[in-house]
Amino acid sequence: MSGCLFCQIAQGERPSHTIFAGDGEMAFLDIFPCAPGHTLVIPRQHYATLSDMPPEEVGRLFQAAAMVAAKVQGALGAAGFNLGINNGKAAGQEVFHVHIHIIPRYPGDGGGSMKSVAHFKGKENLEAIAAKLRPAFASP
User: Fold this and answer.
1) Is 101 a catalytic residue?
2) 3-class SS at 89?
3) Could you count the other beta carbons within 10 Å of the beta carbon of residue 13?
4) What is the pTM of this model?
5) How far is it, in rounded angstroms, from Cα 112 to Cα 110?
6) Complete domains list, the chain, with CATH
7) Cβ atoms of residues 27 and 68 within 8 Å
8) By CB atoms within 10 Å of each CB, which of 64, 71, 81, 128 scores lowest?
9) Which phi and psi angles does 10 have, rounded to 5°?
């Protein structure tokens, strides 16, 4: 897609701090990092959101993310990492080219679990929500 920042990076039209370049996926450092080594993993082909991707390509993207995350963690001596996807505007997606954030975590870095992303307190509604969701999984 011509106006897509990440497509331009994937095609070599914009500079990036690329750390992995595969045939179908690539990884580069986030220019607004949450932690040292904050990396983005993208498919080279344009998909606006994860929901737009064919399942086999989702699998390849996550395989690449798992490999990149392990190497980033090892190379930087991180104690762990968070993986995250902002899927859609309501979820905070700003660049509409699917991407997985790898955020290395270090002892005492002030971060927390992914639970800190949202503050839903509706535990008493879990059965009602599950009842709404189950029919969507009843048939393929």
Assistant:
1) no
2) helix
3) 10
4) 0.86
5) 7
6) 5-138 (3.30.428.10)
7) yes
8) 128
9) -60, -30
